[in-house]
Write a structure and sequence with these properties.
The complex is a heterodimer of chains A (493) and B (253). Chain A is an alpha+beta fold and 493 residues long. In chain A, 52% of the residues lie in helices and 18% in strands. In chain A, a hairpin with a 2-residue loop joins strand 2 and strand 3. In chain A, 38% of the residues are buried. Chain B starts with a helix and ends with a helix. Chain B has 253 residues and is α+β, with helices and mostly antiparallel strands. Chain B has one domain (47-251): outer membrane lipoprotein receptor (LolB), chain A.
């Protein structure tokens, strides 16, 4: 082994140009890997901290449903088609959650999107989180900064308007909203149709850590948000359809609809005029039933956010809740903070995947370049290798020599690359990278990123460089092994 | 030489005649649009009907809405009162000229809404409840002929002249003999097909001819559509107080 090392080291030193070229490629590759992955790991941690701490908690419990359900409602093509389900057996779930040692705090929420208007003027839209202030503040104590006024008092109603939303609305009315002003919120749900609520602004706030999605969120009392989200006690009876009404259900065929020439005109009877005053005011027989059906479903929630005492309990919590739901036959499910956080968090992780793919492509290109350089280098030394074989060196000796030579080069380059990457990261950490636009803010998980050296990234880089070294030496070794010692010795002539 | 002169003269004549023919056809198409609008209006009389709307949704299943419609085209007014389902009973829409109000009886509040918006969760737009305004809202971009089922039709490609209509582009199939719209395809600004509408049944009510059965197909969500059927049609005088906010409040007491 010592002889092998000596020969390998001699070769590395003797072929300075080759060593410099391969070494430089490897150093740059490793440096890119270390810096890039550390950068993404820091961003991922930032995003994680940012979302968990500020508005998602570790886990989100919802009613069982398909589709991409986030705290902002469904964020896919089903968004307008299916309502966010209520959590079944809510009280039982809360009791179970509070009984778990690793659960720090829980917070229930309801989400709705509403058009905001004042008088005849439509001002804009806002996302609403229906909350109980005390519970929300206990879960996210650091993220709500009250700028004016405050939360509504217990038992009262109101909206804490996001300053970012207020500024958009104010552009339409030309004045500044103050606590005490009233706004009309209108929403549409599949269950109850359109709903309007006039709600008083009790205060204005901003999320200290925000993003484009969170900037659209205002906080409102749960009662009004339930009404806007269509969470009422009544339910529509299943539709009873006549045979004529069923005619056009499912697929429709234009040709058969318009197939008969005499089908276009229908005989209708035009009814006699109504003269009785009673007729006009008795059209809604049973307004009591409608009023009863429109009553708020108190106790209904769409989300239960759970914060754990430590993130290490996340998997255990998911398993425990799944077991609990299965045992009790409750149609609920848990989703982790990433699903809860919505499109922006997913986008950050999507970008990381793209980055990793780019790194993989760079690694493949590096392997090809290094391999070619090694092939040239080995071919140049063919006579020397032939002589070694002729005087008794075994194939395995020559193979180990070439592999060791490449690994030595990879090892040194790898360490230098890691050191260079660490230096770059140290500088970036000191300077701090400012997110100058929304896109960067999404990637950074906040307005600023101070990347730190990530040990998993260092480990990954060293594994990659070892793999690159091993793969790069495989082809030239195979060439040497195929050549007989006599031919190899002849090649120098 | 004589023959060449003859050919040139013929070509020149043709070039002069073709645009004239096209202009004549275009004015004929415009006249058809005006006729469509005119025959859908109730001038001098009021109109009321019971609308049954079947909303078919692949996710939500089938929902049935029963809506009472009162309409007075003089002054562009209508009032829609939802009778079924019980969870939406008493909700209403009041159109006064360009102003459309929605009333929510659960909070006793009115909110301004738009004719371009969808009616509740259906595929019907609020504008579909009034008289048609093809001639004043659209200009003709192109036209042709087609056969739809057993009907000889004109096809017209329309482009909105302002933003008061729900869709900026439309293509309509109009019967040649009776000038009734059988089908309409409505497109977004990027010319994406948003909705198709079929009008398989018409009825003559007084002087007007109106569709009494309509099918609106959502072209963005596969399997989603709404059929509307009119019954209990009347052209009797409707009291003025019906077209007021106060009526919507009072009828809900």
């Amino acid at each position: 082994m010592r002889i092998l090392l000596t020969i390998a080291w001699r070769n590395v030193r003797q072929h300075k140009v080759k060593t410099a070229i391969i070494g430089l490629i490897m150093i740059i590759g490793i440096m890119v890997l270390v810096v890039g992955n550390s950068f993404m790991d820091t961003a991922a941690k930032g995003i994680e901290r940012y979302y968990i701490k500020n508005y998602t908690g570790h886990l989100m419990i919802t009613g069982k449903t398909r589709g991409n359900l986030t705290l902002f409602g469904f964020q896919d093509l089903t968004a307008m088609e299916q309502p966010v389900p209520r959590i079944p057996e809510y009280a039982e779930i809360v009791e179970f959650a509070n009984s778990l040692q690793y659960v720090a705090v829980v917070n229930p929420q309801v989400s709705a999107t509403a058009i905001v208007s004042r008088g005849e003027k439509t001002l804009g839209a806002t996302q609403l989180f229906g909350i109980i202030p005390e519970q929300y503040q206990a879960m996210f104590p650091d993220n709500v900064e009250i700028l004016e006024g405050g939360f509504w008092r217990p038992g009262e109603q109101g909206v804490l308007l996001n300053k970012a939303v207020a500024e958009i609305l104010e552009e339409q009315v030309g004045f500044t909203f103050r606590p005490g002003d009233k706004l009309l919120f209108t929403s549409v749900s599949t269950h109850t149709g359109m709903r309007i609520r006039e709600v008083e602004i009790t205060g204005l706030f901003r999320f200290k850590q925000s993003n484009v999605q969170l900037d659209m969120v205002s906080l409102m009392d749960i009662s009004n948000v339930r009404a806007l989200a269509g969470m009422v006690v009544g339910s529509a009876d299943p539709a009873q359809l006549s045979s004529e009404e069923q005619r056009f259900l499912g697929e429709i065929d234009e040709e058969s609809i318009f197939g008969s020439l005499d089908s276009l005109f229908a005989e209708v009877s035009v009814e006699e005029p109504e003269t009785e005053d009673d007729f006009w005011f008795s059209l809604l027989e049973g307004t009591e039933a409608a009023q009863a059906a429109a009553q708020e479903d108190t106790g209904a929630w769409q989300y239960l956010l759970v914060r754990l005492i430590d993130e290490k309990y996340l998997k255990q919590a998911e398993q425990d809740f799944a077991q609990f739901f299965a045992d009790k036959g409750i149609a609920a499910q848990t989703r982790d903070w990433r699903q809860g956080a919505g499109a922006l968090a997913e986008l950050s992780y999507g970008i990381k995947s793209v980055f990793n793919t780019i790194v993989l492509i760079i690694a493949v290109v590096a392997v090809i370049i290094i391999m070619n350089t090694l092939v040239i280098s080995v071919t140049e030394r063919m006579s020397e290798i032939g002589t070694m074989r002729a005087i008794g060196a075994q194939k395995s000796f020559v193979r180990r020599m070439i592999v060791l030579e490449t690994m030595l080069l990879s090892g040194i380059s790898g360490l230098v690359g890691v050191a260079a990457g660490a230096l770059v990261l140290l500088v970036l950490n000191r300077i701090g990278l400012q997110a100058t636009n929304v896109f960067l803010e999404i990637i950074y998980g906040g307005p600023e990123l101070r990347p730190e050296l990530s040990w998993p990234a260092v480990l990954l880089s060293l594994v990659v460089i070892a793999a690159v070294g091993a793969m790069s030496s495989a082809y030239p070794t195979a060439i040497v092994m195929k050549t007989s010692p006599r031919k190899a010795m002849e090649s120098s002539r | 030489m004589k023959r060449e002169a003859l050919v040139i003269t013929a070509v020149l004549l043709l070039l002069a005649v073709v645009p004239a023919v096209q202009a004549e056809d275009l004015s004929k198409m415009r006249a058809i649009l005006e006729k469509i609008d005119a025959q859908s209006r109730f001038d001098g009389v009021d109109f009321s009907a019971l609308l049954t709307m079947i909303v078919e949704d692949p996710e939500e299943g089938i929902e049935k809405l029963v809506v009472r419609q009162f309409r007075r085209d003089d002054g562009e007014r209508y009032l829609l009162l939802i009778q079924e389902p019980v969870t939406q009973r008493g909700q209403g829409y009041l159109l006064e000229g360009d102003n459309l109000w929605f009333y929510d009886p659960s909070s006793r509040q009115f909110a301004h809404t738009s004719l371009k918006e969808t009616f509740q969760d259906s595929d019907v737009r609020n504008a579909d409840f009034g008289s048609s305004s093809y001639a004043s809202s659209y200009e003709i971009e192109g036209y042709g002929e087609d056969v739809l089922g057993s009907f000889e039709t004109y096809i017209m490609d329309l482009k909105a002249v302002d933003d008061t209509v729900p869709f900026p582009y439309a293509r309509i199939w109009v019967t040649k003999d009776t000038n009734l719209v059988l089908k309409a395809e409505e497109y977004s600004l990027t010319r994406r097909l948003m909705r198709s509408a079929l009008f398989p049944k018409y009825a003559k009510v007084g002087e007007a001819i109106i569709p009494v059965q309509m099918i609106f197909v959502d072209e963005l969500v596969e399997g989603k559509k709404t059929q509307v059927t009119l019954s209990e049609i009347s052209t009797a005088k409707i009291p003025d107080h019906v077209f007021t906010k106060a009526y919507l409040e009072r009828v809900n007491r």
